[in-house]
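sanity check this record:
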Amino acid sequence: MKLSRLIQIQLKNNFSFKRFFGFDLKKNKAKAILIGLAIVYAIGALIATFGYMFFDLGGMLKEINQTHLLISFSTVYALAFSMISVLLRASGYLFYYKDYDILAPLPIHSRKLFISKLVVLLTMIYFVNFIIALPIMFAYFYWEGFNILSLLIYIIGFLLIPLIPTIVMSLLSLGISLFTSKLRYSKIINLIIMVIVFIGIMALSTSMSNTTVNPLTGQIDLFTNITKYYPPFKWFNQAVYENSLLDLLWLIGSHILIFGIAIYFIEKLAEFTNKRGIRSHIIYKQKKLSYQQKPVVQSLVEKEFKKFFGSALYALNSGVGLVMLVVLAIASLIFKADVEGMLSQELGFALNAEIMLIVVFGFVIGMTYTPAISLSLEGKNLWILKSLPISASYVMFSKIVFNLILILPIAITSLIMLGISLSIPFVNIILLMLLIIAFSILTSCLDAVINLYLPKFDFQNETEVIKQSAGAFLGIFGTFGVLITFGVAYYFISDYISLEVSIILLTALSVILTIPFVYIIKTKATKLFLKY
């Protein structure tokens, strides 16, 4: 089979609309239009928010003739996302992929198979990098002036920059998998190592910040230093800003050469690991059977916990925000004087401490999106839930309860610590607590509705559900869209009412919006279980 044909099949298998949405668009046009509008709104709101910040930053850089620094933001963000994405996905895409037993017997050379898998991984990286880079590109070419040659060089560099991080992080991901597979508690240790590496990358991206004018200006020194000491960034910046063809040739030559050599050797490693499989440390113990009668919801929630911690990818994607929140809360007690300044700097606005916390907690809650994918993760085992003498709505509400158990204890504890650090009045802490509870319930119900309308039971790898499905996408960006909507509402009412009343109104709005979602869950869950 030709490599081009194999890549085409892999891309179609992973990125077709039917596979992304979970249903045939031609047969469900109205549903497709509504979901499409929701996706456009979520992406538009996100791009508009960051676009405004980068446009504002571009104006400030233009005044000091430093517009080229915007290119550094684009390259460093692309590097950071590529590293994180490959770290999470390489073990399932390049090494130990689950459809190896099906593909291996086919008359396809292992190198072609590896390259096709690599193209799928890079396609996902390019898609998200494009969304990130779009507002930066617009700001740069607006303030610097449009140049077709600079744009072409920008596109070439955009395609090349993620290649080396992909190689490095795929090897790191494989190393972590090999190391932890030999240990007794391999899944937990693998999760802990992934979290440490992830937080390390995030901490690096927010270090060396010393300004409070714009949430992005505090990163200028860091990004400038990275550009200075990482030659590909320097070549890319000079190629775009100065239209230097020599720097472009250095960029192209170095990346193609390193990437080509790496593919040759890593392909052999991928073939070896896929044939070998993961040999986990297994201990057999005889335990005396005991029978306990538990409430239905408790049993279902316990099942969700086992599923959550049984998959490092699932736990890391849905739980890393909570881990970062705990780190921030603990750090606030140690570095009390720096917390408010750091939050102001990252958000870029002179906001009240309460509003800054609402934004932070809103983003963390949005990153904990288990109800948007947990039903899909049942996959072919859905029949087991259907065979139980419980209603479909009980199953969905247990998934919502699980998500709330993940969020609320950590969020409330962190809120108290941050409230003390920021000297927030006790009454306002209680009001914020009520808002966080109401917002968590709202977003959990919203995520459940998303999963009910966009289930994805037919998947080859859990990564397809956790990272690629429409449920995962809307689960994150849908919550961010709600958060941005709340922000716009607060902007218009804040001049007329007090902060405390604003928080109460946002809490009430969260409760009101939750009611129709609860009704939809009750009716749609039953229909879905009858359909599948």
The chain has two domains: 1-281, 307-532. The chain has 22 helices and no strands.
